[in-house]
Design a protein that fits this description.
Order of helices and strands: HHEEHEEHHEHEEHEEHEE
CATH topology of the largest domain: Heat Shock Protein 90
CATH class of the largest domain: Alpha Beta
Number of strands: 11
Number of domains: 2
Distance between the termini: 51 Å
Number of helices: 8
Structural class: alpha+beta
CATH architecture of the largest domain: 2-Layer Sandwich
Shape: elongated
CATH superfamily of the largest domain: Histidine kinase-like ATPase, C-terminal domain
Strand content: 15-25%
Length: 383
Amino acid sequence: MTKKNYYLKLAFGIVAILIVGASLLFSNKLVDNVANEERQKMEGWAEATRLFVSVDNNSEYFDFLWQIIEQNENIPVIIVDDNDDFISARNFNAIPQDTAAFYEKKIQELKYKNEPIEITIHNGEHQYLYYDDSILLKQLAYYPYIQLVIVSVFLIVVFMSFAGSKRAEQNKVWVGLSKETAHQLGTPISSLLAWVEILKSKHADDSIINEMGKDINRLRTIAERFSKIGSKPEFIAVDFVAVVENSIAYMKSRSSDKVVFEMEKPSQVLVANINVQLLEWVIENLCKNAIDAMDGKGNISVKINADNHNIVMDFSDTGKGIDKKDYKNIFRPGFTTKKRGWGLGLSLARRIVRDYHHGRIFITTSEKNVGTTFRVVLPIANR
């Protein structure tokens, strides 16, 4: 990460924290203001109630006080006596049939919700007003948390967009580099192929020249693979088993005699819509990882079968095995347990199988110093 990107992310983080902090402070201040207003309203309502029970029904203040009491339509209130016995209540909804138990429970709840307001009656008696928060205040109380979630989601989306655009830019660089590499390799590979043909014309029976030709053709195939990175691959219906056999045969010819390849296949032809070059790449990566895991000595077993929908290939080795904690990481780009390597082989294999061929690749079993089995599942072609 460059210093510019570091400071940009740091500045973005500071601004985000300031936005969230200021938003929460403002929201909490708003909630406190509304709560204070409701408190003042309840104190005025309590005073109106005190005067209401003191004046005569024919008094000129009677109707005025009654109007003040009636104006409270949204704040639930309960009035009790000195013994917390229920006297009256307003603005409670969904009251059950057992009203006594209901109000007794509410009294205990509201006693600690807001500080009770004392009402002194003219004859020296005391009543107490318990009240709940209005619906508006309850909504406002949750608002800061809702706002925090919304702001957090927004910041996460912005950060992911920033990271995604950065990854997209990096992917373009890698795609461009791959295509340029393939282009630069094209000329010397063509030249080498021409020289091999000249050598064959003079030494037709020389097996070494024929093997050189095979390796140069392999280089051409690899260059073509790099040239297709970032492009939409072409798929054809082919014999899946034949493709695997060809890839295994090539890896066998380039491996030590201490590596034994075994293959179990069905008698019927299994047709799959695949990109041959990409699928060969998957098999080669599995072979190379298996040979490395076995330190160049052991057995590689390939078992192929199918059901009505999928072709299943189990690729097993007798290597060191993989820790269960690494099962999820083994396909992550850059992850490797080897001293050398980029950790891209299995990541590339998963992308080819999953993203391009709409299949699956995963570890079925792995045991330390016994071996590992990878399973590749691909859709079978419609006949």
